[in-house]
Design goal:
The complex is a heterodimer.
Chain A lengths: L5 H4 L3 E3 L3 H17 L6 E7 H10 L1 H9 L12 H7 L3 E7 L7 E8 L5 E10 L2 E7 L2 E5 L5 E7 L4 H11 L4 E8 L5 E8 L5 H10 L3 E6 L1
Parallel strand pairs in A: 2-3
Antiparallel strand pairs in A: 2-4, 4-5, 5-6, 6-7, 8-10, 8-11, 9-10
Helix pairs in contact in A: 2-4, 4-5, 6-7
Chain B lengths: L2 H4 L6 H11 L3 H13 L3 H24 L12 H8 L7 H18 L3 E3 L9 H13 L3 H21 L4 H4 L1 H19 L4 H14 L16 H20 L8 H14 L16 H11 L7 E2 L1
Helix pairs in contact in B: 3-8, 4-6, 4-8, 5-6, 6-7, 6-12, 7-8, 7-10, 7-12, 8-10, 10-11, 10-12, 11-12, 11-13
The chains are: A alpha+beta, B mainly alpha.
C-alpha cells in the first residue's frame, strides 16, 4: 500500500493502550451497536485468540462494552464502560474462549434489544485500529466500516440487486464497493454495499418496502 | 484525482527532496499538498483535523505529567512525574529531561486507558508530542509551526511505512519507536530552520541509531519496555536533529536506510516481533510478571 494518509501515520486519536486490542475492539463494539441500531438491553461478548489471552491487560473487554453502549472509540470514558453499562441498565456478560479463530483478534458480540430482537456480529481487529466484520446474524460478510455501509439480506433471485441499486440511484447514493454473498443458489444471500454518502433511514425503509426479496436491511 | 495535484505524490525520500527543490517548498508543504490530493479535501479541512490531533497530543502530555495514574495492569506509572521533578539536576540538561519526561507521560496515559494519538503507533505515541510540545516552549514555536512539524513528521512516517514497516509485529521496535524518533527528528530540523535534505539526514541517523531494536513487551502489554523506549526515542530524536543541524550527514542515504530496516525486520525471529516470546519478555522476571497477570489463578473464565 502506497497511499497512506497523513492520518494513518499520525493517528488514530484513540484510547490506549493498544491500537489492535483496545481501539480496534472499541470500533468492533461500536459497529455492532450501529448494526443493532442502538437498541442494546443485553450483550454477550466472546473473546477469541489473542483477545482472550491478553485482552484483560489491554482493556479489550472494556473497549468492546464501550462500543456497544455507543461510545466512540476515542471517548475518554471508555475505561469506565462497565460502570456505564450498569448505570444504563445493560446486562453484559464477557466470556473468553479457547476456540481457534480465523484471525487472532476476534470477538463475537451478541446483542439483545429491548424488544428481544437478537443481533449477532463477529469481527476481527486487524491492526492499527482497523477492523473487519466477518459475520452478521450468521451471514458471512466482509466489511471494514471505513465507508457508510448498507447490508441487505435477501433471497438469491434474478433482479434483486437491480431493485436495490435502482433505489440507491434514485436517492443519488454513489456505490464505492459492492459484494454479494450467498449460501447456495436461490437461497439466503446478502449484499454488502459501501457508499460515499450515508444511507438514510428513509432509504432503508424504501428498500424494505419495495424489494420483496429482501428480509433484513442494516445501515452503518 | 486532479492532474495538478498528482504531481505531489511521492513514496521515496529522493522524490520528496526533488519536489521540495523544484518549488522551493519545505517538506511540510509538500506533504500537505499530497494529503489534499489524496483526500480531495480543502486545505482548511485537513488543517482543522490536524489541529484536533495536536489538541489531543497536548492534552495527553498535560494529563500524563499532572496525574500519577498507574497502568491498568498495575505494572507501570509515575515515572514521567519522577523524571520531571528531577529535570533541573539532570545530566542531560533540563530541556532534554523535560522532553523525555513528556514522551514517557504520553505512553503512561496510554497504558492507563487514556486518550492519545498513535504516532505512528500507540506504543510509540510519546516521542513526537513529547519533543515537539516541550521544545515549542523554549523555542517559541506557535501552533501553526507545530502543525508544520506534524506534517513533516507524517511525511517521514509515510515514507517508512511505504519502504519498510511501522508495525512492531513486522519490524520490531525499530519500526515503532525508531520511526517515531525519525519523524520527530525531521520535524525538529524543519522547525529549527534546517533544509529538507538535513531533515532526511536527521531521520536516517535516528533510524540507524536503533536499527535492529527488538519488540519484546513484557506480558504482551504496551508498557515495559515501551515507556522507556519512548524516553530513548525522544533523546534519539533531539540528538539526531542536532547532528543534522550541525551539518553532519548520514553516510547512508535515507532511502537505503529504510531498505536496510526492512531487511533487518525480515531477518528478525518472530520471537522478537511483538509476540512477547523473546527479549526481556522471556526473562525469568518477565515470565513471572506475565504469569502473575494472566497465569494460573488469575485465569479469566474459559468456555468453548
Amino acid at each position: 500500500m502506497q497511499n497512506f494518509s497523513l492520518f494513518d501515520i499520525i493517528g488514530p486519536r484513540m484510547v490506549g493502550p493498544s491500537s489492535s486490542h483496545t481501539a480496534g475492539a472499541a470500533k468492533l463494539g461500536h459497529m455492532a451497536w450501529k448494526i443493532a441500531r442502538g437498541d442494546v438491553k443485553e450483550a454477550e461478548l466472546t473473546l477469541y485468540g489473542s483477545f482472550a489471552t491478553t485482552g484483560r491487560g489491554h482493556g479489550t473487554d472494556k473497549a468492546l462494552v464501550a462500543g456497544i453502549l455507543g461510545l466512540a472509540p476515542d471517548d475518554a470514558r471508555l475505561r469506565y464502560s462497565m460502570l456505564l453499562a450498569q448505570e444504563a441498565g445493560v446486562a453484559v456478560r464477557v466470556a473468553f474462549s479457547d476456540e481457534e479463530p480465523d484471525h487472532p483478534n476476534t470477538a463475537r458480540i451478541r446483542i439483545t434489544g429491548a424488544d428481544g430482537k437478537v443481533t449477532e456480529v463477529v469481527g476481527a481487529s486487524i491492526g492499527g485500529g482497523n477492523i473487519r466484520i466477518t459475520e452478521i446474524n450468521g451471514m458471512a460478510v466482509e466489511l471494514s466500516g471505513e465507508y457508510p455501509t448498507l447490508i441487505v439480506r435477501h433471497t438469491d433471485v434474478p433482479g434483486v440487486i437491480n431493485d436495490v441499486t435502482s433505489i440507491l440511484a434514485r436517492e443519488k447514493i454513489n456505490v464505492a464497493f459492492m459484494r454479494v454473498f450467498r449460501q447456495a443458489r436461490r437461497a439466503d444471500a446478502c449484499m454488502v454495499i459501501e457508499t460515499d454518502t450515508p444511507v438514510l433511514e428513509r432509504t432503508r425503509q424504501l428498500i424494505l418496502e419495495w424489494c420483496p426479496q429482501t428480509t433484513e436491511v442494516f445501515t452503518i | 484525482m486532479k492532474s495538478e495535484t498528482k504531481a505531489y505524490l511521492f513514496t521515496k525520500g529522493v522524490d520528496l527532496i526533488a519536489l521540495c527543490r523544484a518549488e522551493a517548498l519545505p517538506i511540510s508543504e509538500v506533504m500537505l499538498r499530497r494529503e489534499l490530493a489524496l483526500a480531495d479535501m480543502p486545505r482548511e479541512t485537513v488543517l482543522a483535523e490536524l489541529r484536533e490531533t495536536l489538541a489531543t497530543m497536548r492534552a495527553s502530555v498535560e494529563q500524563g505529567l499532572s496525574e500519577q495514574k498507574s497502568s491498568i495492569s498495575g505494572l507501570t506509572g509515575g515515572d514521567a512525574e519522577r523524571l520531571c521533578s528531577y529535570a533541573g539536576r539532570a545530566l542531560m540538561g533540563e530541556v532534554m529531561a523535560n522532553s523525555v519526561a513528556a514522551s514517557m507521560a504520553v505512553v503512561e496515559v496510554n497504558a492507563s486507558m487514556g486518550r492519545i494519538v498513535a504516532a505512528p503507533t500507540a506504543g510509540a505515541s510519546g516521542i513526537l508530542p513529547g519533543v515537539l510540545l516541550t521544545l515549542a516552549k523554549t523555542r517559541g514555536w506557535d501552533d501553526d509551526a507545530l502543525l508544520r512539524g506534524l506534517l513533516t513528521a507524517g511525511a517521514i512516517g509515510m515514507l517508512i511505512a511505504c519502504g519498510a514497516s511501522i508495525s512492531g509485529a513486522e519490524g520490531g521496535c525499530q519500526a515503532e519507536t525508531g520511526t517515531g524518533a525519525a519523524m520527530a527528528a525531521a520535524s525538529l530540523v524543519e522547525l529549527s530552520g534546517g533544509t529538507p535534505s538535513q531533515a532526511l539526514h536527521a531521520a536516517a541517523i535516528a533510524l540507524k541509531n536503533v536499527m535492529g531494536l527488538v519488540c519484546d513487551p513484557v506480558a504482551g502489554l504496551v508498557e515495559c519496555p515501551c515507556i522507556k523506549r519512548n524516553a530513548l526515542g525522544a533523546a534519539n530524536a533531539i540528538l539526531s536533529a542536532d547532528l543534522a543541524l550541525a551539518g553532519i550527514e548520514s553516510l547512508i542515504p535515507f532511502d537505503e536506510v529504510i531498505s536496510a530496516m526492512k531487511s533487518v525486520g525480515r531477518a528478525m525471529s518472530p520471537d522478537l516481533r511483538e509476540t512477547a516470546r523473546g527479549g526481556i519478555a522471556a526473562t525469568p522476571t518477565g515470565k513471572a510478571l506475565q504469569r502473575a497477570l494472566f497465569g494460573q489463578g488469575e485465569e479469566p473464565e474459559r468456555i468453548g
